[in-house]
Amino acid sequence: MAYFLLRFLFLGILYFWPSAIAQDTDLEFSDYDKEIAAIEKELMSELSVWDYSTDLRLGGGYKENVTLSAFAEESSPFAAIGFDFMAIRIPLAEDGVEVTVFGALDERRYLDAESVDSEQSGLLNVSLEKSLSQHW
């Protein structure tokens, strides 16, 4: 019974708790648009439209067939280092262009291989997007 009364009291307090109205009901739609535009302008002056991330990787391992040969297989331990980066431009600016850049660089050094000292690989992906219209 005490549990029921505590629960009832808690619900009663929540019901009568003062609440705030999220919007001013006296504004017209054009006033809302002006307020939104002012808020966007203020945010654009404070925030950058660019965001980026970088990552550095270190590692090691063992590769059984360094040369990828069917006849003269050669095995070796290796040490590896890699670097990744990503940059994104969100389309909040007036031109509405979204840019995404992703890149990765990898270096692998073989410690015991006679025919192969190292291998490198790189990747770059750039994407540009522009919305033609709000109705598309």
Q: Helix and strand layout, with pairings?
A:
Blueprint: H1 2-16, H2 29-46, E1 50-63, E2 76-89, E3 97-110, E4 118-130
Antiparallel strand pairs: 1-2, 2-3, 3-4
Question: What features would you describe in this structure?
Answer:
- The protein has helices spanning 2-16, 29-46, and strands spanning 50-63, 76-89, 97-110, 118-130.
- The protein has a domain at 48-136.
- Strand 3 and strand 4 form a beta hairpin.
- The protein is elongated.
- The chain has 136 residues and is an alpha+beta fold.
- It is built from two helices and four strands; from the N terminus they run H-H-E-E-E-E.
- The protein has a four-stranded antiparallel β-sheet with strand order 1-2-3-4, with no helix packed on it.
- The relative contact order is 0.14.
The major beta sheet can be summarized as:
4 strands, antiparallel
> Roughly what fraction of the amino acids lie in strands?
35-45%
SSE order, one letter for each helix or strand: HHEEEE
Bulk shape: elongated
Q: How widely separated are the two ends?
A: 61 Å
Structural class: alpha+beta
Radius of gyration: 30 Å
Average pLDDT taken over every residue: 83
Number of strands: 4
What fraction, in percent, of the residue positions are helical?
Answer: 10-25%
Counting H and I runs of at least 4 residues, what is the number of helices? Answer: 2
For the biggest β-sheet, the strand order reads: 1-2-3-4
pLDDT < 50 stretches = none
